[in-house]
Design brief:
It is found in: Membrane. It catalyses: ATP + protein L-histidine = ADP + protein N-phospho-L-histidine. Its main location: membrane. This protein is an alpha/beta fold. The chain folds into 4 domains: 192 residues, no CATH class; 152 residues, Histidine kinase-like ATPase, C-terminal domain (Heat Shock Protein 90, 2-Layer Sandwich); 129 residues, Rossmann fold, CATH 3.40.50; 119 residues, Four Helix Bundle (Hemerythrin (Met), subunit A), CATH 1.20.120. Helix content is 64%, strand content 9%. The strands form 3 sheets. A 5-stranded mixed sheet has the order 2-4-5-7-6. Helix 15 links the parallel strand 11 and strand 12. Helix 3 crosses helix 4, helix 4 runs antiparallel to helix 5 and helix 4 packs across helix 6. The longest helix is centred in the N-terminal third of the chain and has 96 residues. The protein is elongated and about 180 Å long.
């Protein structure tokens, strides 16, 4: 991560540096544009002045002083521009290599030279005009008697002659030309002025020619193109930096993204490790709770079961009372255990609500039976008021609603020494309908400053409360969470030493009954349950004795098995109406045994799982593998009775199916054939390794694989067919199966299987069903050889791959 941080810091620094550089480049670009505009503007002024002065050769200069003044101003502008860049640095240190300084210097000096040249032209023009005017004045003054136009004509002709004479290469005046051109108007002074005029005229023409020459003015184009090149260079530089900036930005983003990816990945790994550790801790806690629940409930099943048996069987009143004390104490312990488990479920969000119709009397009958005796023992009254119509049923979780009421009413009885405890049920006209349950007592009450904490886990109003009344402090916490889980709310009001009132409001769907449903009992269907047989699979002998006593009290016949394997053996020999199956047993667990009953034996017998595991996951696993119902330890007699009543139709249907098979002439074998797992069979019984069919060296691996695949497919089909046909005890259907097995065995020289088949054929020839033990031996050997064929196929295929 440090490398990514350093790389990100490097990219960020480069990014900031490039932003600064590009900002500086834009600034320098602006300077170049400004200087270029200034030189262009001044250069155009120079060109304008040149053109104006050049035109004076034709039209003459009407106002030379104005032109001189403009040239002076132009010189000042050039000097001001020169001072602007000469006194300060034109560019920053990173752009000193730019030619802006050289271009400006070249422009300045060349422009000053041009302006100075133009100034000389103006001076020569003025002098030329002055001399020409002087000549004109002399000629006019020498010939006053002549007409004005004649004087100008003579002057012009004489000047032309003089100019022609002066054009000669000789250093003296051509006398002939002078004689022919002169007149009385020409004097020596006139001649001197004419010569001076000619010299000035030649200089003037040279200055004009130089001013109009291309090389004298092309520097302006060079300067302009120089600034354009600088602008192009800076444009390209800015574009390059911008591109680099974009690339660097994306590189920075990618680096940050990669950094964040690895950082998030590292955090995710850390979070996952923490979550795994938390999950492990949570699973360990759940496993601990499940284990402790199982270990506590298993002996409690024996304690409470024996106590119930003693209470029902004993004829002595004192003994029955003592047994009831044991039952009450055990139930109290189970309640505490349930509180701990329920709190764990709610805390983990694993508490799931059920939905079924029930009535208020369904709740109060259990409350009345359980709490009335406790209240009477303390000398207080338990009053139950039901203001909900009798024909109204509530649709919701009856068990959790009863748990809420038991907890609140139980606490009320516990903390009330005199007076009464009242439960009141009212229907509130809301949508959805809400049932309000009030639990009011005249007990010790709760101090006002303690009310807020009574719904917290493991807390009671006073520490002395735990010592005096017992409890875990979880009850009200669970009540509040259950009420909120059901979409309701709970409130409490109390006054110390006066009493307490809890108000619970829970929304329910309503169902209206037209008539009362009669309750069914086992005794009302005595014919259907006659000779009702139960296979009890329980490794704990005390629990087995308790459950057996409960069953016998319901006129059920019980056969015991102490693990899953024993249960499977018994089920192969005998049919039962009901199987009661424990889970944690040696040799084979209850879940594995149920799975074998459904998948291998293919029995539809009703199965009640009976376990001390109270978590939903354990119950769901039983149902998924094929159990019909789950009973929870410590088992109560009425719970068993209710479950049997619930599945009475299934028991009757199973009996009818068995009777129908027997009535239609299909023998009903009790013993069943099965296909055992290969790890439970001796592999020494396989005969493929020594088969002559596979021994020839000229057979390729591919040919051997094809032989083995055909054997395995044939054996697997015949095993299933043999198990299915044997169920209906039809010898004529077994014969073709045995014949197919015999043919395959002969092909592969399986002598042991052939010997068993000979015994089977003897029975079939006499039209007798072969013994199950003999057929089971054949199935076992077929299974072993099928498994060996699979191993050999894998071996040869691997050899084909490796060459």
């Amino acid at each position: 991560m440090n490398k990514f941080k350093l790389l990100s810091l490097f990219f960020a620094s480069m990014f900031v540096g490039l932003i600064g550089y590009i900002t500086l480049a834009y600034s320098e670009y602006g300077k170049v544009i400004n200087y270029g505009e200034a030189t262009r503007e001044l250069g155009h002024k120079v060109l304008e002045k040149r053109d104006t002065i050049a035109g004076s050769m034709i039209n003459g200069i009407s106002n030379p002083y104005e032109i001189s003044a403009s040239l002076v101003q132009l010189e000042k502008d050039l000097q001001q521009l020169h001072q602007t860049y000469a006194n300060t640095e034109i560019h920053a240190f990173l752009f000193k290599e730019l030619e802006t300084q050289a271009l400006l210097d070249s422009f300045y000096f060349r422009s000053m030279e041009t302006v100075d040249h133009l100034d000389h032209i103006v001076g020569h023009t003025v002098m030329r005009q002055f001399i020409l005017q002087s000549l004109t004045d002399l000629l006019v003054s020498s010939s006053t008697n002549e007409p004005q136009n004649q004087i100008y004509g003579t002057l012009l002709s004489n000047i032309s002659a003089l100019e022609q004479s002066l054009n000669d290469d000789s250093s003296y005046i051509n006398q002939q030309a002078l004689d022919s051109a002169t007149s009385p108007l020409i004097t020596e002074e006139t001649l001197r002025l004419a010569i001076t005029f000619k010299e000035i005229e030649q200089q003037h023409r040279q200055l004009i020619s130089k001013a109009l020459s291309p090389e004298h003015i092309t520097y302006l184009d060079q300067i302009e193109h120089g600034f354009i090149d600088l602008q192009d260079y800076l444009n390209r530089l800015i574009a390059s930096i911008t591109t680099a900036l974009v690339i660097l930005f994306f590189a920075l983003c990618i680096t940050i993204a990669i950094w964040r990816y690895y950082e998030l990945k590292a955090n995710a790994v850390a979070y996952q490790i923490a979550a795994d550790n938390a999950e492990k801790a949570n699973n360990a806690k759940s496993l601990f709770l499940a284990t402790m629940s199982h270990e506590l409930r298993t002996p409690m099943n024996g304690v409470l079961g024996i106590a119930q048996i003693i209470r029902e069987d004993s004829k002595e009143q004192n003994t029955r009372k003592q047994a009831q004390v044991i039952i009450d104490s055990g139930q109290h312990l189970v309640t505490i255990l349930n509180d701990i488990l329920d709190f764990s479920k709610v805390e983990q969000g694993k508490m799931e609500l059920e939905s079924s119709p029930f009535s208020i009397p369904d709740l109060t009958v259990h409350l009345d039976k359980t709490l009335t005796s406790l209240a009477e023992d303390k000398g207080i009254k338990l009053i139950i008021k039901n203001n909900v119509p009798q024909n109204i049923q509530l649709v919701g979780d009856q068990a959790r609603t009863r748990q809420i009421l038991f907890n609140l009413a139980g606490n009320a009885v516990k903390f009330t020494e005199k007076g009464q405890v009242e439960l009141e049920f009212n229907m509130q006209d809301t949508s959805p309908a809400t049932v309000q349950m009030r639990v009011t007592d005249t007990g010790i009450g709760i101090a006002e400053d303690k009310i807020e904490g009574i719904f917290s886990a493991f807390e009671q109003a006073e520490l002395s409360t735990t010592r005096k009344f017992g409890g875990t402090g979880l009850g009200l916490s669970i009540v509040k969470q259950l009420v909120e889980l059901m979409g309701g709310n709970i409130s409490v009001s109390s006054q110390l030493n006066v009493g307490t009132q809890f108000v619970v409001s829970i929304p329910f769907e309503l169902k209206q009954l037209e008539q009362q449903t009669e309750q069914k009992t086992v005794e009302s269907h005595g014919i259907a349950l006659s000779n009702f047989t139960v296979l009890l699979v329980e490794d704990n002998k005390i629990n087995a004795m308790v459950i057996k006593k409960f069953c016998e009290s319901l006129n059920l016949k019980v056969d015991n098995a102490y693990d899953g394997l024993q249960a499977l053996d018994k089920l192969k020999k005998q049919s039962y109406d009901l199987i009661i199956m424990d889970n944690h047993m040696p040799h084979m667990s209850g879940i594995e045994a149920i799975r074998n009953i459904r998948q291998e034996l293919k029995l539809k017998t009703a199965i009640f799982a009976c376990t001390a595991d109270v978590f939903k996951e354990a119950h769901d696993e039983f149902i998924e593998c094929g159990a019909n119902f789950v009973l929870t330890k410590p088992l109560q007699k009425n719970s068993l009775q209710n479950a049997i009543e619930q599945f009475e139709q299934l028991f009757q249907d199973n009996r009818d199916n068995r009777t129908q098979d027997c009535n239609t002439g299909i023998p009903c074998n009790v013993t069943r054939l099965t296909r055992y797992p290969t790890d439970k069979l001796p592999m020494t019984e396989e005969e493929l390794s020594t088969s002559n069919l596979l021994s020839p060296e000229h057979l390729s691996h591919q040919e051997k694989i094809e032989y083995l695949q055909s054997l395995k497919a044939e054996f697997d089909v015949q095993i299933d067919a043999l198990i299915e046909v044997f169920t209906h005890s039809q010898p004529d259907e077994i014969s073709p199966i045995i014949q197919t097995i015999k043919e395959v065995s002969l092909r592969f020289d399986m002598s042991e299987i052939l010997m068993l088949i000979e015994e089977v054929e003897l029975d079939l020839n006499d039209e007798n069903m072969p013994p199950a033990e003999l057929l089971q031996k054949i199935i076992n050997r077929l299974t072993v050889n099928s498994h060996q064929a699979k191993r050999l196929i894998d071996k040869y295929q691997q050899q084909l791959k490796t060459g």
